[in-house]
Design goal:
The chain contains 16 helices and 13 strands. By secondary structure, it is α/β, with parallel strands linked by helices. The chain has a single domain, classed as TIM Barrel (Alpha-Beta Barrel), CATH 3.20.20.70. The strands form 3 sheets. An 8-stranded parallel barrel has the order 3-4-6-9-10-11-12-13, surrounded by 6 helices. The longest helix has 21 residues. It is globular. The relative contact order is 0.14.
């Protein structure tokens, strides 16, 4: 790290509060340090354009005081959906509702960035018969029942997908969004290219880490060419995927350093994949739970390498823990998600009261098999998002059985196929 970067980190450690603004290197100022991390909304139309409810939902979060909202998955290829009701942004999209969505998300001085994604092989088998991936390697740990074995992408197809990310970013800027985020975590396509477990190619796109990171770097450069230097580009990146033979912490730090060197504007740190969902807090250590931050230790190591703005997401529930994380100087923003699905005013309350906290209830129908089938940790929160999208208030005591039967009625058994944020 340069002397200037080190001084900046020290200054940040001494002065940053949850309500303190932050100016990105390109000049955009985020009004506070609270960052709404992506959650799957499942609010796309049959044509995969945004439903009007997305504007209502993000407008409500903007009113609640969030500094920067990241949308849920916006897919760059309508032939590659991670979920049935995903929004897609490409040349066929009607930008009308995208513009309304962006405008609503910018209320109250907030920023809103679409999270751009391609699922690779993480497409349920009821959506596509043969998904694509860096290599023809199937998902494991029981997921092979719901996800078909992929075929390996050709080089021409890789180049097309890179351009699809760039097109989606260009259209995001045109629609009025204030930045974009590349989803490079949780086992989706960018993450698959980075992982030696899933990427066993022997061409320029696989093998060494330099080759495995070529895909994400090519996406970044293609987007930058379309949007210019002043439009922020962020990335959500795994600290590791916690799988034998997979993407390691050492790999991740080298990717972070390389992305920082080329000019990435914001890095959100997460971890895990469908096969090992660490982003959901699985197997978190007691010390990690106590400080409420799943990936803060990793961020502390990264801070010694780069001065790129960082976001740590996962586990935060209280003002005190969030402020403690900022005080370390390891992170510049605090990522929150499910807490805002239950209380959209959570950001304002955190800033106003240094003792504010919110505990999320343990979700259960009383029948563990039903809980697992219903994926309550996802569908219950999606039901809260749907309420806000319909102009209603969240319902903290919303019935788990009601969510189960409601989801079954609306989307059938497919709604409960394995999904992640």
């Amino acid at each position: 790290m340069t002397e200037q970067a080190a001084a900046s980190a020290v200054d940040n450690k001494n002065t940053a509060k949850l309500g303190t603004s932050f100016t990105l290197k390109n000049g955009q100022t985020i009004k506070n340090r609270l960052f709404k991390s992506a959650m799957s909304e499942q609010l796309g139309t049959k044509a995969h354009d945004p439903k009007p409810g997305l504007a209502k939902l993000y407008g409500r979060w903007a009113e609640g005081g969030i500094g920067l909202s990241m949308t849920g998955n916006v897919m760059v290829d309508r032939g590659a959906l991670g979920e049935p009701k995903n929004v897609v942004l490409d040349e066929k999209s009607d930008l009308t509702e995208f513009k309304n969505w962006a405008q609503a998300g910018k209320k109250n001085g907030s920023h809103i960035w679409p999270q751009l994604n391609h699922p690779g092989k993480q497409i349920p088998n009821f959506i596509v018969d043969v998904p694509v991936a860096p290599s023809a390697i199937a998902l494991t740990r029981g997921l092979e029942k719901g996800f078909n074995k992929p075929r390996a992408l050709t080089e021409d197809e890789i180049l097309v997908i890179i351009q699809k990310f760039a097109t989606a970013a260009k259209l995001s800027k045109q629609a009025g969004f204030t930045g974009v985020q590349i989803h490079g975590a949780h086992g989706y396509l960018v993450s698959q290219f980075l992982s030696p477990r899933h990427n066993q190619r022997d061409d320029q796109w696989g093998g060494s880490l330099e080759n495995r990171m070529r895909f994400v770097l090519s996406i970044y450069h293609a987007i930058r060419k379309e949007v210019g230097e002043d439009f922020p580009i962020g990335i959500k990146l795994n600290s590791a995927d916690f799988m034998k033979g997979g993407f390691t912490e050492e790999d991740s730090m080298q990717v972070v350093k390389t992305l920082a060197d080329v000019g990435i504007d914001l890095i959100e740190i997460s971890g895990g994949t469908y096969e090992n969902p660490s982003m959901m807090g699985s197997d978190a250590k007691k010390s990690t739970i106590a400080r409420e931050a799943y990936f803060l230790e990793y961020a502390e190591k990264v801070r010694a390498l780069v001065d790129t703005p960082l976001v740590v997401t996962g586990g935060f529930r209280s003002s005190k823990a969030m402020q403690a994380a900022l005080d370390t100087g390891a992170t510049d923003f605090i990522g929150i998600a499910r807490t805002t699905a239950v209380d959209p005013d959570f950001p304002n309350k955190l800033i106003a009261d240094e003792n504010h906290q919110q505990q999320l209830k343990k979700l259960t129908t009383g029948k563990p098999a039903i809980d697992k089938m219903a994926m309550l940790d996802i569908t219950w929160y999606e039901a809260q998002l749907a309420r806000m999208a319909n102009g209603k208030k969240p319902k903290p005591n919303l019935s788990e059985w009601g969510v189960f039967f409601g989801t079954l009625l609306n989307a059938g058994i497919y709604a409960f196929r394995k999904r992640r944020a």
